[in-house]
Automatic annotation (TrEMBL):
Known partners and oligomeric status: Homohexamer; trimer of homodimers.
Annotated site, Important for catalytic activity, chain positions: 222
Name this polypeptide is given: Purine nucleoside phosphorylase DeoD-type
UniProt gene name: deoD
Organism field: Anaerococcus kampingae
Catalytic activity reported: a purine 2'-deoxy-D-ribonucleoside + phosphate = a purine nucleobase + 2-deoxy-alpha-D-ribose 1-phosphate; uridine + phosphate = alpha-D-ribose 1-phosphate + uracil; a purine D-ribonucleoside + phosphate = a purine nucleobase + alpha-D-ribose 1-phosphate
Matches recorded under SUPFAM superfamilies: Purine and uridine phosphorylases
Active site (UniProt): 209 (proton donor)
UniProt keyword terms in alphabetical order: Glycosyltransferase, Transferase
């Protein structure tokens, strides 16, 4: 495949920075570009999946939506890594807390992701492959979050294949018992794509709702208010 790809309209690899921040919502990508980046140029609007490149404190960074779920996001992960020579993708998204001490607006940095997704079927035989981020990038993000004074949790997340899941109560309780911090929908695919292409992946989330306390943020806050997560990702982005 050559560029532009079927899903990304950038005609040159130089239009996209080596690090790309990827929220699921393309309007969150636009919010980051409008509020954090300078000298911004748009490189994608195909299928409404907005993508921009600009500068953050002199550092060249791109931001682009991925859509919801592993199937949608992996299209973009693979095309960015494989055809546009992107070195690092940082997922910035929302998540639902699965633990009492992980509160609304806290930040979670994923140390690994589990999923019921079948994307690994037939790749590793009877081995259940663990999907993990880049360790050095993970440590850089955690240390930076402490410097910035953010309430941050590091641990395993669940990348669900369904937003409206009918998970059995016993399964939910076992996930909690074994320390799953929160549920989101894309990181398992990101970490797999990064490992496949020998690149870097990281997942940073803001808790937008709690499955324990039954509270949730508004749609507007989900799109525009999680600036701590956005700033953290931009601070650790590699030029």
């Amino acid at each position: 495949m050559t560029i532009p790809t079927p899903h990304i309209s950038a005609t040159s690899k130089d239009q996209i920075a080596k690090t790309v921040l990827m929220p699921g919502d393309p309007l969150r990508a636009k919010f980051i570009a409008d509020n954090f980046l300078e000298n911004v140029e748009q490189f994608n609007e195909t299928r409404g999946m907005l993508g921009y490149t600009g500068y953050y404190k002199g550092k060249r960074v791109s931001v682009m939506g991925s859509g919801m779920g592993i199937p949608s996001s992996m299209i973009y992960y693979n095309e960015l890594f494989n055809f546009y020579d992107v070195d690092c993708i940082i997922r910035v998204g929302t998540a639902g807390s699965m633990q009492e001490d992980v509160k609304l607006h806290d930040i979670v940095i994923a140390t690994s992701a589990c999923s019921e997704s079948s994307i690994n079927d037939n790749l590793f035989g009877n081995i259940h492959f663990s999907s993990t981020p880049d360790f050095e990038l993970l440590m850089k993000a955690y240390n930076k979050s402490i410097d910035l004074g953010y309430t941050t949790h590091c641990g395993q997340v669940h990348s669900s294949d369904q937003f409206y899941s009918e998970m059995e109560p016993k399964v939910f309780e076992n996930l909690r018992k074994y320390g799953i911090l929160c549920v989101e929908m894309e990181s398992y695919g990101l970490f797999m794509a990064a490992r496949k292409h020998g690149k870097k992946g990281l997942g940073i989330f803001t808790i937008s709702d709690s499955l324990i306390e039954n509270v949730a943020d508004s749609a507007e806050n989900r799109q525009k208010s999680y600036t701590n997560m956005m700033e953290l990702a931009l601070e650790v982005a590699e030029d």
